[in-house]
Amino acid sequence: MGILEIKNVGKRFGGLQALGDVNLSVAENTVHAIIGPNGAGKSTLLNCLVGKLIPDTGSVTFQGQSLLGRSPHEINQMGVSRVFQTPEIFADLTVFENVMIPCFAHRDGSFKLNGISAIRGQNDIKEMAEAILMDVNMIDKRDMTASSMSRGDKRRLEMAMCLVQEPKLLLLDEPTAGMARADTNNTIDLLKEIKEKRDITMAIIEHDMHVVFSMAERITVLAQGTPLVEDTPENIKGHPKVREAYLGEAQV
Amino acid sequence: MLGLEKKDTSLLIIVAILTMCAPFILNPFPTGSAMAQFNAGYPDLMQRFVIFGIFAIGFNILFGLTGYLSFGHAAFLGVGSYSAVWMFKLLGYNILPGIVLSVITSGVFALLIGYISLRRSGIYFSILTLAFAQMSFALAYSVLTPLTNGETGLQVYNSDPQYFHSDALPNIPHLFGQEMQSTFKLELGAWSFDFNTGYYICALIMLVMFYLAIRIFRSPFGLMLKAIKTNQTRLNYTGLNPRPYTLAAFVISGMYAGLAGGLMASMDPLAGAERMQWTASGEVVLMTILGGAGTLIGPVLGAGFIKYFENIFSKINDTVLHQWFAFLPDGMEDFLIVIIHPFVGKGWHLTLGLLFMAIVIFLPGGLVEGGQKIAQKFRGSKAKDDTTATDSTPAE
Amino acid sequence: MDVIILQLLNGLDKGSAYALIALGLTLIFGTLGVVNFAHGALFMLGAFCAVTLQRILSLSFETIDPTKTDFLGNPAKVKTPYLESWFGPEMGSSIIDWSVPLAILFAIPIMIGVGYIMERGLIKHFYKRPHADQILVTFGLAIVIQEVIKQFYGANPIPTPAPDMFKGSFDFGVLLGFDPNAVIYPYWRLVYFSFAAVIIAAVFAFLQFTTFGMVVRAGMADRETVGLLGINIDKRFTIMFGIAAAVAGIAGVMYAPINSPNYHMGMDFLVLSFVVVVVGGMGSLPGAVLAGFLLGILESFSSMNQIKQILPGIDQIIIYLVAIIILLVRPRGLMGRKGVMED
């Protein structure tokens, strides 16, 4: 039984069947990639996992608990973090403040009125935030305003914000979209490093085959809202059905 | 000190010194001189400075930090005033119960309105708060007349119970016998300074409220509010529920408004529905923006600035203008007066509107940002040297 | 029954004003994406166009009439409008009498001009700024316009009568078989309602059947795409702003005889019109019109004595109450498109 179990999930937008009948199991401590051509339903699936969309049919369980009907912040509190296609960070705040916020969420839960105690005095939070910034090599940028950084740094910051909460499952939505090759490689290295250091499960939605094959331990190919095939990267590469549906155009 | 950073402590101390010495600072001109019209050191005006300061500080906690623009905050001011006057009517003229009740009722009221309004954001939130405030205004004039005394306004009558009133106590608002209206006049040569009890009580309360606001700004709660303004999506996916935070901010700022309303009634025991009208809500928005939304000192500056110029501009009439420009040739004098006339006296609101537009267009950060820009210009040459120095540091 | 019809009719004229202002607000919001808090001021400017024209037309010169004396015994001064001396007393006085309808012709170019200047000079710079900034700057502008009008016309309402022909009331009661005087309705309000209906129809026809309207509608649906097609959408939006201003203006002109114009009438109507827009659905033109009439009629019904006895004060707050319920239950409004500023 995997850490994340998706059973018979279907989602319909008006006349469009976005997800047919998706069954997927993500094993603990693996990197699981979900690939597929545009419009295959990857993003819809992801949104069903994090509580942004509610699937019409089926069930989604995380560590045996159902995720359906829970709001994004509740799902996050259960240990699921999400990295967005375009980095979602607190653009007006400093890098250090950005990472402190998830630290508070990790320590205090989804709401705690800390109205009077000064941030200055929260040494445990500060240490946590500093440690994660060290981890992602951003400690020298701690006082920069987040919006003034490069896209690569924003991505790095977003990852740091997710990781500091010590999630059990990290969902990555095209983490290298729109990046230069060098930045892409840096991101891959960062992710690999993270994987080495922690017990973490990653589910990656990705277009870039280079990223997928250099990281994933299992790959699910999604086409027209249903999983086409699920296997190891080696087998996927040679799979005729996949070549036909997807890889042929991608020119790996 | 007081659990604040050095920078904030010095800010608090500066504000404390300024408010405590306000009777001197605001009366820089000798009483008899022609410039005396620019003096602002009389009790009534000074009270308004600090009371609106409290109102704006509270509004800033909501608007400045979370970015939720409420157009209905005057409703809380009105509720606060009504509560305080009711306490005067029932218990007696001691202002303490009145102020306590005004904070409590406005808090409850804010909780109710906030709970509903905060289910929407952006412009919808603004319109919802506006609708609630207008509704309260309309109700205060009609159905709630037994509570609000309608158009006459709520005031204390001789026939009111005033259970704790005794003949030994003054028959006007007081704090344990200290009358709000009592003023000590200090004559120093040509100068005269007024030290008013009511002002000092309001000023002390404002300082406490300002201190509280600094604590909120520097607390994890304040950080969450700033996060709400920047990116609610990320906040959601960070496991935090924005709604209780915004609601808490709404209630806190509503309580600040209620406190201001209570103090207003304590200085002058009268409460009218016009305090709840949306133009009054607009005024506090204006003060906050003008001073600098999201900054600590901005709202206080804005409130002082608007109330000061409201007072000065409203007093200037054509006779005053003639005095000013008497040195000019007649034609020039008349011409200048014709030009200036629409903007002064009763035309103060026109000036205010223009000022407001100018601030939003050219200086969205308000006076604080303007001050920073000027300071930067002055330090310009020095700062340039600094950057070149860092630039020339060889890369690793 | 007669009471119900009476309230229905009473609701129509206020509803017409709401609908016309809300229509303009929606046009501006839909095309330009701007929340215009100064729209009520445009309505007020329209009403003052009527006042101004009436004053211009009644400009008079004084002559001394030796046959009459005033109460002090001096020879009386008689004012004669220039128009009467130019066109003869009858023609002249009837022109003055008709000054409100004539003011429409006078107001249209003025309001289009005002709208044009407003859009090019101010609003244009706020397309990319947050909605809060748009609200604030137009709020400031509304104060300025209001105060300028106050400088020129004073703070008191200025009675601006309708043409004599439309004084008096129409007796619907007799027409519908009730007692005489049971359902009477002033002629001018009837005129106002018909006029509003015509204007609304004209705006819809314009958007539906002209190329210009088609482009604007496309722009409302998806601004960027139309821009890519090489159509100069910005220029069209400017014109659209002018039209919206003109609609608000002439709505104000015609409203002048119903309620004597004063400088704060714009603000009074604006708050309610915003509520109307929200109830109708942000960005939906039919929604704005529907909600305008609906709320006008609802307001009129809730001011009936029978209802006020059960729910005192309900007439004061009914519109806000409806808005609050709508926003919570169906945030996109009665006819709003899904996803338009829903959160």
UniProtKB/TrEMBL annotation, chain A:
One of its GO terms (molecular function) is ATP hydrolysis activity. The lineage of its organism: Bacteria, Pseudomonadati, Pseudomonadota, Alphaproteobacteria, Rhodobacterales. Residues 4-249 form the ABC transporter domain. Keywords: ATP-binding, Nucleotide-binding, Transport. This is Amino acid/amide ABC transporter ATP-binding protein 1, HAAT family. GO terms for cellular component: plasma membrane. PANTHER family: CONSERVED COMPONENT OF ABC TRANSPORTER FOR NATURAL AMINO ACIDS-RELATED (PTHR45772). InterPro entries: AAA+_ATPase, ABC_AA/LPS_Transport, ABC_transporter-like_ATP-bd, BCA_ABC_TP_C, P-loop_NTPase.
UniProtKB/TrEMBL annotation, chain B:
InterPro entries: ABC_transp_permease, LivM-like. It is a multi-pass membrane protein. The chain crosses the membrane at residues 12-29, 49-71, 91-116, 123-144, 198-217, 244-264, 284-309, 321-344, 350-368. GO terms for molecular function: branched-chain amino acid transmembrane transporter activity. CDD domains: TM_PBP1_LivM_like. It is found in: Cell membrane. Its main location: membrane. GO terms for cellular component: plasma membrane. Keywords: Cell membrane, Membrane, Transmembrane, Transmembrane helix. This is Amino acid/amide ABC transporter membrane protein 2, HAAT family. It comes from Litoreibacter albidus.
From TrEMBL, chain C:
It is found in: Cell membrane. One of its GO terms (molecular function) is transmembrane transporter activity. This is Amino acid/amide ABC transporter membrane protein 1, HAAT family. The keyword Cell membrane applies. The chain crosses the membrane at residues 16-35, 42-61, 98-118, 190-216, 237-258, 270-298, 310-329. Belongs to the binding-protein-dependent transport system permease family. LivHM subfamily. InterPro entries: ABC_transp_permease (IPR001851), BCAA_transport_permease (IPR052157). One of its GO terms (cellular component) is plasma membrane. It is a multi-pass membrane protein. PANTHER family: ABC TRANSPORTER ATP-BINDING PROTEIN (PTHR11795:SF442), BRANCHED-CHAIN AMINO ACID TRANSPORT SYSTEM PERMEASE PROTEIN LIVH (PTHR11795). Keywords: Amino-acid transport, Cell membrane, Membrane, Transmembrane, Transmembrane helix, Transport. Coiled coil: none annotated. GO terms for biological process: amino acid transport. CDD domains: TM_PBP1_LivH_like. It comes from Litoreibacter albidus.
